Amino acid sequence: MNIQTGPDTTPECIKGTFFARLRNAAPAAWQGYVRHPFVRGMADGTLDPARFRAFLMQDYLYLLNYARAYALAVYKSDSFEEMRESADIVAGILNTEMAMHFSYCEGWGLSRAEMEAHPPAQELRAYAGFILDRAQAGDLLDLLVALSACLVGYGEIGLALANDPATVREGNPYFSWVSVYADEPYQDLMRRGVSRLDIVAARRGGVARLPELTRLFTTAVSLETAFWTAGQTEMT
Amino acid sequence: MNIQTGPDTTPECIKGTFFARLRNAAPAAWQGYVRHPFVRGMADGTLDPARFRAFLMQDYLYLLNYARAYALAVYKSDSFEEMRESADIVAGILNTEMAMHFSYCEGWGLSRAEMEAHPPAQELRAYAGFILDRAQAGDLLDLLVALSACLVGYGEIGLALANDPATVREGNPYFSWVSVYADEPYQDLMRRGVSRLDIVAARRGGVARLPELTRLFTTAVSLETAFWTAGQTEMT
Amino acid sequence: MNIQTGPDTTPECIKGTFFARLRNAAPAAWQGYVRHPFVRGMADGTLDPARFRAFLMQDYLYLLNYARAYALAVYKSDSFEEMRESADIVAGILNTEMAMHFSYCEGWGLSRAEMEAHPPAQELRAYAGFILDRAQAGDLLDLLVALSACLVGYGEIGLALANDPATVREGNPYFSWVSVYADEPYQDLMRRGVSRLDIVAARRGGVARLPELTRLFTTAVSLETAFWTAGQTEMT
Amino acid sequence: MNIQTGPDTTPECIKGTFFARLRNAAPAAWQGYVRHPFVRGMADGTLDPARFRAFLMQDYLYLLNYARAYALAVYKSDSFEEMRESADIVAGILNTEMAMHFSYCEGWGLSRAEMEAHPPAQELRAYAGFILDRAQAGDLLDLLVALSACLVGYGEIGLALANDPATVREGNPYFSWVSVYADEPYQDLMRRGVSRLDIVAARRGGVARLPELTRLFTTAVSLETAFWTAGQTEMT
To answer: In the structure, what pLDDT confidence band is assigned to residue A5 with cuts at 50, 70 and 90?
Structure first.
């Protein structure tokens, strides 16, 4: 795909941050992820609903593992305040986001019981396994970098689609999904995550670790991309 | 010490539970912990306030590590509901309990800054290190057993002292501490913890693992006791 | 596939063991793994060499993660002797097996540098991620059960093919692979692993945990099977 | 204690290394550790043998936990070669060093059974708990820094005492202990550990992380010192 396609979608809040250095070190991989055909299919409403349902079921499993990774961030934090930030994210996922996800999925005809019984796709296992492995084997910075591809990617996609006049609003069943990530609560979460990454990177040698962290980040981005790709065709 | 001293203080809620089997397997160790001279010094108000202040400062560090252990319980849980229970405890400690602890300690002349700067005692390190090591090396059942000595012990102590006519109420600076653990919020937390232990023990072979789990539990109890003992004399 | 195809290939050493209970609880999944078309292609020499090379490259990455999992088994052991058993396996993999693997792969035209630079397949990530996640989240028994599908499966396959008169020996480039797993060093490793699982299962409530452990085992078997399936067609 | 007491004992091999930066950041703590009265009591043979026996029993438990920490280093390594280095240390401790330790202790009248049954001292728990906690919560660099206080300290002590004309050789029951750490096998182990720390520090932002790593290192040194101090008086 052509990474020059379309205007720059870099969110303001990442400019000059440590996250920007990671993203800039893997420009093609990043654009392949945030401008993926699956995303474009949501933007113009042409995505097959069966494909979106399969994605939602895997996304439920992803959320559970995402919460487990942030629980490890609590364990790996060095101060009370740092622990609190991650604990709030864990509680937010398990109390608020999960309820929203269940209710949203119900609108797509997916019951909670169905979602809980659904088996993980290989792509979900590969991605979640990677994040949790890096989270345990590395330090808090490795963990936050591994999670940042998802955290910022969804925020950037949401914002880019919401700002793009070509995005179909009327009658597009995917526009409410776009809004979740474009709206203030998620954008705020993303901004706080980006600024926290700056703090932890400063304290734990982020710049000196850029070669390794870029590899880690690029792998996370490629696993996100593989998740979209499988979502389009094979994932059940 | 004589474990026959005083009436039976077994909380109703543990009767017939898996926790009761652990407690009954280590009766002398348990009584030595819940009827420790440090505890009796709080009951009759004779405890040296300097000793109590030292205890409070270490207890702050204990709470942080306790929250880290419950964060590992989130990571080690097998279902969404199980994750939520532990996540609520982590959030409860870091948001509610910690604020109460800071405010309570302020009443004893200890500022938050002072507490955060205070170095851990050997006994705190030994106990917290033991819990976190068992939490990572074992499964969710090992983790919950390691934490149960503290969870139930403080609830049993609070209840026993609140119900004991010999406990000094008027002018006893420690009676508010007793109330925290005797009152409904903590008693409810304890009951839920005990019932959760039953569920996890049933699923993960608790009865068949009793010899190992009893050793683990007895060690946790002995480290709690050592914490009281050091609190009485040397801990700073 | 028809699981009645061919004679019973159960190794003698697993009869009556805890491992046999796991294997018997998932008969179709197990047969689908050990009699997989990829395996039959090695038995009769019809497997595409390009497919075998792709498998060997992923198998290198698998071995590294397998060694990491046994390193966690050292960490999670409860006694000096138990630690030694796992440490010997880690050292055996990294010193002996890896050298053999490199030399064997060189015979297939794969240099060590090429193998080290090769990216992991999704199926490798999914399987290794699963094993390491269960290894960290669970106890030593969870860990050993997760590893047992590979340990015994390869030994059973090697033995079955070596004993099967239909297996092509002359001019079959895969027969040396069969021999590695049929020969005494690996068979001995397998027997010791099976007997160790008995010991740890007895101590850590294996029988009472059968429902959960069977799920864990069946997932590991299905990820092994997916690894063969991808090996046949898409894995690079 | 006066850190100017006696000549400089800095081993040649650490000059200009990352380890030297850690050691130089905590000069008083370091000297308090390597010139501890317990050490001087071994140098001149005046140490109470009962105290040395108590130390040996705790040292056995320390070795087990030290091997567990290096097993985590295998898990946390990023390359095959890096994994091998730690795996060789784990195997070396469990196969070679432990046999030497058992045989050495037998010379002091301590049977292996006695050592295995002996309970851990608080100081052992505090130190081992700290190392394992940092090993799991941090990355490979945190882990190696936590272990370096022991690795280099014992090598520096051994070398310093072996080179010091004041050290009693004839009739000093502790001189063989000094030799173990002064002799080439241990000195080689130490040199390789120091050079490995340089490599990992370069890759994982060691210099930028000096404030945090110095705190970690200083804590490890203080826990080593507390171990000597308890060894002199109370440890059983």
So the answer is: low
CA distance A42 to chain B (A): 28
Nearest CA in chain A to C123: A122
> Can you tell me the ipTM of this complex?
0.94
Give kind and range of the element (H or E) at residue B207. Answer: none
More confident: B235 or D54: D54
Map tokens 């070398």 to a residue. Answer: D159
Chain C interface, Cβ < 8 Å to D: 64, 67-68, 71-72, 74-75, 80, 83-84, 86-88, 90-91, 94-95, 98, 116
Q: Domains of chain D (ranges plus CATH)?
A: 47-230 (1.20.910.10)
Q: Do C212 and B203 touch (CB under 8 A)?
A: yes
pLDDT value for A235: 79
- Taking the CB of residue B152, how many other CB atoms lie within 10 A of it? 26
- The predicted-structure confidence for D103-147, as pLDDT tens digits, reads as follows 999 999 999 999 999 999 999 999 999 999 999 999 999 999 999
| 3 state SS for chain D | CCCCCCCCCCCHHHCCCHHHHHHHHCHHHHHHHHCCHHHHHHHCCCCCHHHHHHHHHHHHHHHHHHHHHHHHHHHHCCCHHHHHHHHHHHHHHHHHHHHHHHHHHHHCCCCHHHHHHCCCCHHHHHHHHHHHHHHHHCCHHHHHHHHHHHHHHHHHHHHHHHHCCCCCCCCCCCHHHHHHHHCHHHHHHHHHHHHHHHHHHHHCCCCCCHHHHHHHHHHHHHHHHHHHHHHHHCCC
pTM above 0.90? Answer: yes
SS3 content of chain D, % helix, strand, coil (to 5): 75, 0, 25
Distance, CA of D39 to CA of D61 (rounded, Å): 20
Judging contacts by C-beta atoms under 8 Å, the chain B residues touching residue A84 are 94-95
Please give the distance of CA A205 from its chain centroid, rounded to a whole number.
24
Give the closest residue to C221 by CA, choosing from C31, C63, C8: C31
Chain B closest-CA separation from residue A72 CA (Å): 7
A1: exposed, middle or buried (C-beta count within 10 Å: 0-12, 13-18, 19+)? exposed
CB pairs under 8 A between A and D: 44
pLDDT per residue over A66-88, tens digit each? Answer: 999 999 999 999 999 999 999 99
Residues of B near D (CB-CB distance < 8 A)?
122-123, 125-130, 132-133, 136, 223, 226
CA-to-CA separations, D148 to A236, D64, D195, in angstroms, rounded: 50, 16, 11
Q: Which of A126, A132, A136 has the CB atom closest to C126's CB atom?
A: A126
Cβ-contact C77, B139 below 8 angstroms = no
State pLDDT tens for residues D170-212: 999 999 999 999 999 999 999 999 999 999 999 999 999 999 9
User: Contacts of residue A132 in chain C, CB cutoff 8 Å?
Assistant: 129, 132-133, 136
Burial class, C40, CB count within 10 angstroms (exposed 0-12 / middle 13-18 / buried 19+)? middle
In angstroms, the CA A67 to CA B80 distance is 10
Q: Angle, to 10 degrees, between the axis of helix C175-182 and the axis of helix C140-163?
A: 130
In the structure encoding, which two tokens stand for residue D142, read together? 């945190």
Is residue B132 within 8 Å of B69, Cβ to Cβ? yes
